[in-house]
């Protein structure tokens, strides 16, 4: 299968995202896609150059990071599925409102024209606040599937939720079969 694997700027989860990417890439052809933020931002979790290098090593392909590079995904039917991991609250909002103003959201828009799955691995501090509405919209929308997710630190970050990235390969497999991996919400 040809899988797009898009990373957004929840850098604290990259240590969990890259192992999931490795599993997916071990049995699929994977094209890495970076949001503008992930492609250009150094953080306390590593430099942009380090993240780009790691994704390219895992996937064996150059990172796509511009709207022009990802736009052909749909017209050329390049992907069987698109994974967005981590998917930030910002990206959730854009997807829920059909805004395609960056490489990740354009990749999703372009890919969805073919009626193929988009797999979302949520990572946002406001999942039970401002982002809840957008998660709800996408849960009910055709061709969107979620990696099971739950609260990551209820005491210190009561509105924060994050995907269980270890379940990402299973969620992708289920999405390719047209079903949502259950349960979606973890305890």
Secondary-structure blueprint of this entry?
Elements: E1 2-7, H1 14-27, E2 29-34, H2 36-40, H3 48-59, H4 67-70, E3 81-87, H5 89-96, H6 103-112, E4 118-124, H7 132-139, E5 144-146, E6 149-151, E7 161-163, H8 168-176
Parallel strand pairs: 1-2, 1-3, 3-4, 4-5
Antiparallel strand pairs: 4-7, 6-7
Q: How many runs of DSSP E, i.e. beta strands?
A: 7
CATH class: Alpha Beta
Average per-residue pLDDT, rounded, comes to 97
CATH superfamily: Flavin prenyltransferase-like
Oligomer classification:
single chain
End-to-end separation: 32 Å
**Largest β sheet strand count, sense and barrel closure:** 7 strands, mixed
Shape: globular
Q: Which structural class do you get from the secondary structure elements?
A: alpha/beta
Question: How many domains in all?
Answer: 1
Tell me roughly what share of residues is in helical segments.
Answer: 25-40%
Gyration radius (Cα, Å) is 15 Å
Features:
187 residues; Rossmann fold; globular; seven-stranded mixed beta sheet; single chain
How does this structure look, described?
The protein is of the alpha/beta class and 187 residues long. It has a single domain, classed as Rossmann fold (3-Layer(aba) Sandwich), CATH 3.40.50. Strands 1, 2, 3, 4, 5, 6 and 7 form a seven-stranded mixed sheet that branches. α1 packs parallel to α3 and α5 crosses α7. The longest helix has 14 residues. The protein is globular. The N and C termini lie far apart (32 Å). The model has no long low-confidence stretch (mean pLDDT 97).
